[in-house]
Write a structure and sequence with these properties.
This protein is mainly alpha-helical. Among the domains are: about 15-180, Rossmann fold (3-Layer(aba) Sandwich), CATH 3.40.50; about 185-255, no CATH class; about 255-360; about 360-445; about 650-755; about 810-875, Orthogonal Bundle (Arc Repressor Mutant, subunit A), CATH 1.10.10.10. About 65% of the residues lie in helices and about 5% in strands. The chain contains 49 helices and 8 strands. The strands form 2 sheets. A 5-stranded parallel beta sheet has the order 2-3-4-1-5, sandwiched between helices. A 3-stranded antiparallel beta sheet has the order 6-8-7. It starts with 12 loop residues before the first helix and ends in a 10-residue tail after the last helix.
């Protein structure tokens, strides 16, 4: 988000004092017309606050979309507030429309848990009119605690009621009357602009004409600086007259080249010297822009883009109108050249906007086809829909090539019925259209069926035609990817990975960046499930590190990275990446991504005893999966929900969940009494039944189910799932065995599967298995690579005979100091005072301590250390 930079030498002390009172109110409203000085006031106010306490979100028209608005809001808060909880954010717009009050409640709850003061500034709020956003914010404001202050800066009254906030004295309103410049401030402002002292009579006249409106005063003072007192006397008063005066006196008096440059550059929203030179057919634009910026002619630099500028919205509108009036014949060509230049720069959306305004329908149509094809290759499906959905049916069908990206985008966004309609139109209208022949249509159909039907998808022999010699590399690569995923779903890993590797090579050659990342994800899943953990992690890390975060491909690779971090026991890093992904997954993200991120984050949260957040995530995932045929992912969510309910020892929830999953009926029907070909859904629900039976004391029946599952998995390639099942079986069978029998069984299991494959996922899905493994490692009967021992160092605590210092050696000096304070029973605030650090820093240290020592929280830490006695390092 943009960082406000106040102008030098001009501040309004009275207004700053008024705005500083905002800390006493949940909502402060800056309500005034454009050019009143709202942004300048906010900039000076923010300059006096710690950067970490202010989240500034400058809004644009495109932010009037729930998904974009709340995603950017979550990202901007997280950039300032470490560990901010964004589980409240739901990127699925359909659900947002159903319950904005609930979303507002969750958002308020997340904000209220922030320590210290936080100011949330939403600038240019007049762009926000979407009911879901407004209702959510209204709900949030009703529930905010005193530590969070919201500042809305807007030209218009916000679209939600302020009555209750006013009645409860929770609203501070600063309006255009407060923002008017006083005579003294006008004198000060004039000196800031380089002018000499004004006659008080002229100041009074200026006040009468402009009513203290900042933008009007500035234009008048700039005119006065150039033309003297006559300029002030000729002002007619009122907004339209001031703008008219600006155009006829200031712009007309400029040198013709400069005047022409100002008019023609109004064709851009944002621009730099090179773009102006190329489109306007001139040289030296960069130096001219620096000169204009120095004159303060409402030319503003674009943050984080050195050399780039934009006009103040008022001036831009003014110049654009005059450009249309004085150079109507040039505008189409200017827009056309701007579109071509921006297309070369890769700024595709702006290029399309200019092409649309060029009035050249053929040019716009050709560019739209080209850009949509590029967006499909890069995975920007939301942009495809944004541009194609507004087209009428005759327009869309009149350009049949657009039906291809439209079908892909609708399919990946899970809008299967609309995708089928587009595909039917393509089949009906384009049988002989070059580039849209039968193989392309057949590929679109296969892709749609795969995503719509998931496990029920069966390509039959149709794929053979698409892999025949002579077809394009695009068709072959996409077909290979579809088939690779199809075989992965059914546990045929060797076949899947072979197809995915071939697809990956082709996709890289033809620039299919997004699908290449999808092939990477398939390869990683194959290696992981096949028990090649080291190979999977190596590939995942390399792919992740080489991918820009701005690319949609990053989401796929970051998902694989989450699993790699989690399984290597890097839980803090895995949770951080999960939180990042939660704000980025959308309805067009891969179902693998959506399910993996939700389940992994829920598992990490449950481990930290944040059961409420974990449960909400799993419930949300279940609702998302109801949008299609996702039995496989639903079974994963069901297993995780039952696992967490068992670990939390919640009998009522256990039974309710078992009832919802129909476990008792399935058990009565003998669903897991006979071996069958491996089926992931069958196995996952079987494990859910095992957890439930174990908690009910029916271990023998649970063991029988595990043996059936294990026999089924013996004939499959799903080594990782076999390991989870057999680890659970080993834990349940230990009760009736001698120590020697237990150790022998575990050693045989390790020998079969390899110690590197026995990771955090196995430990979590097989409760009690970690203790058995690490007891054997500590005793020396089982050996592990050094990297493995380091990754799971916190498990190497043996018992009461182990000195506390061995455990505490994992901590830094400052962490040890904080931990010592915790063991004395001090609160977080007391620890901060004792250690001389900020409260947020204390919480960060505690988070690291819990992670390093494998502790879920304060209570477990105190209980874990009580038997050990005091340590000198902590005294």
């Amino acid at each position: 988000m943009e960082e406000l930079k106040p102008p030098h030498g001009f501040a309004r002390a009275e207004l700053l004092a008024l705005l500083c009172r905002c800390e006493q109110y949940p909502l402060t409203l800056l309500l005034a017309p454009a050019g009143s000085g709202k942004s300048t006031l906010l900039a000076h106010w923010q300059a006096g606050l710690p950067c970490s306490s202010v989240v500034h979100y400058p809004l644009q028209a495109r932010d009037n979309d729930p998904v974009r608005f709340f995603r950017h809001l979550a990202e901007s808060i997280r950039s300032q507030v470490e560990g901010f909880d964004i589980s409240w954010f739901n990127p699925f717009a359909a659900e947002m429309h159903q319950a904005p009050e609930i979303l507002g409640e969750y958002l308020a709850d997340a904000l209220n848990r922030i320590d210290g003061r936080l100011y949330l500034v939403l600038d240019d709020f007049q762009h926000i009119v979407q009911p879901t956003i407004l209702d959510t914010l209204a709900s949030m404001l009703e529930r905010l605690a005193s530590g969070v202050c919201v500042v809305l800066s807007s030209r218009n009254h916000p679209g939600f009621s302020l009555s209750s906030l006013k009645l409860e004295n929770k609203l501070l309103c600063i309006d255009q009357h407060d923002l008017r410049l006083s005579p003294a401030q006008i004198q000060q402002f004039n000196r800031h602009l380089g002018g000499s002292e004004l006659n008080p009579a002229y100041v009074d006249t200026l006040i009468a004409m402009t009513e203290g409106w900042m933008a009007g005063v500035k234009m008048a003072l700039l005119a006065y600086a150039r033309f003297g007192t006559e300029a002030l006397e000729r002002f007619g008063g009122g907004h339209p007259e001031i703008v008219d005066y600006f155009g006829h006196v200031v712009l007309k008096r400029l040198a013709p080249p400069l005047h022409d440059f100002l008019l023609c550059s109004a064709v851009f929203e944002r621009f730099d010297g090179a773009l102006c030179d190329e489109v306007l057919g001139r040289e030296g634009s960069a130096l001219l822009l620096e000169e204009l910026a120095a004159r303060e002619l409402f030319l503003l630099s674009v943050p984080d883009q050195p050399g780039s500028y934009r006009y103040h919205a008022l001036l831009h509108d003014f110049l654009a109108r005059r450009l249309a009036l004085y150079k109507p014949q040039q505008m189409p060509e200017l827009h056309r050249r701007a579109a071509q230049a921006l297309r070369q720069r890769g700024e595709l959306e702006q290029a399309l906007q200019h092409a649309q305004r060029s009035a050249d329908k053929a040019f716009f149509a050709a560019l739209l086809e080209e850009v949509c094809e590029q967006w499909v290759r890069s995975g920007h499906y939301a942009e495809v829909l944004k541009w194609l959905e507004p087209l009428s049916e005759p327009e869309l069908c009149g350009q049949p090539r657009l039906l291809v990206p439209m079908t892909y985008a609708l399919t990946l966004s899970r809008r299967f019925h609309q995708a089928r309609y587009c595909l039917d139109e393509l089949v009906a209208r384009c049988r002989d259209e070059p580039g849209l022949e039968a193989p392309t249509r057949q590929l679109l159909a296969l892709n749609l069926e795969l995503f719509q039907h998931d496990l029920a998808f069966d390509p039959g022999e149709r794929w053979a035609e698409l892999l025949a010699p002579g077809l394009s590399s695009d068709i072959r690569a996409l077909t290979l990817t579809i088939l690779a995923y199809y075989h992965l779903m059914h546990g045929r890993l060797q076949h899947s990975i072979g197809l995915a590797l071939e697809a990956k090579a082709l996709l890289g050659q033809i620039g299919q960046v997004f699908l290449e990342s999808y092939a990477d994800l398939i390869i990683a899943l194959c290696n992981r499930n096949a028990g090649r953990a080291t190979c999977a992690r190596k590939d995942v890390c390399q792919d992740y590190q080489r991918t820009e975060r701005s690319s949609p491909a990053w989401v796929n690779r970051a998902t694989a990275m989450v699993v790699a971090l989690y399984e290597q026991n890097q839980l803090a890093a895995a949770q951080q990446l999960c939180e990042d992904l939660m704000a980025m997954v959308t309805s067009s993200s891969a179902t693998e991504t959506i399910a993996t991120v939700h389940i992994t984050l829920a598992r990490l949260l449950q481990r930290r005893q944040e059961q409420g957040r974990a449960t909400r995530l799993l419930e949300r995932l279940s609702r998302i999966l109801q949008l299609g045929n996702y039995a496989r992912f639903a079974s994963q969510a069901a297993q995780e929900s039952m696992r967490q309910a068992c670990l939390d020892a919640r009998p009522a929830q256990l039974d309710a969940l078992a009832h919802r999953l129909g476990l008792e009926e399935r058990l009565d029907a003998g669903e897991w009494e006979r071996v069958r070909p491996y089926d992931e859904c069958w196995e996952r629900y079987g494990l859910a039944a095992v957890y439930w039976l174990t908690r009910r004391g029916a271990q023998p029946r649970a063991c029988r189910i595990l043996k059936v599952l294990a026999q089924s998995l013996q004939h499959s390639e799903m080594v990782a799932r076999a390991l989870v099942v057999e680890a659970n079986l080993l834990v349940l069978e230990r009760a009736g065995q001698t120590d020697e029998q237990r150790n022998q069984a575990l050693l045989q299991l390790v020998e079969r599967f390899g110690i590197v494959n026995i990771n955090r996922s196995v430990f979590d899905e097989a409760p009690g298995f970690a203790e058995a493994v690490f007891d054997l490692l500590r005793s020396g009967q089982l050996q592990a690579p050094e990297a493995y021992s380091e990754a799971y160092a916190e498990f190497f605590r043996s018992g009461e005979n182990t000195p506390a210092v061995d455990l505490l050696g994992l901590l830094t000096d400052k962490e040890a100091e904080v931990f010592a304070c915790l063991l004395k029973g001090q609160s977080n605030s007391e620890i901060s005072a004792s250690a001389g650090i900020a409260l947020s820093t204390t919480k960060w240290h505690l988070k690291n301590i819990y992670s390093k020592l494998n502790l879920s929280g304060r209570t477990e830490a105190i209980l874990a250390m009580q038997p050990r006695g005091s340590d000198q390092r902590l005294s």
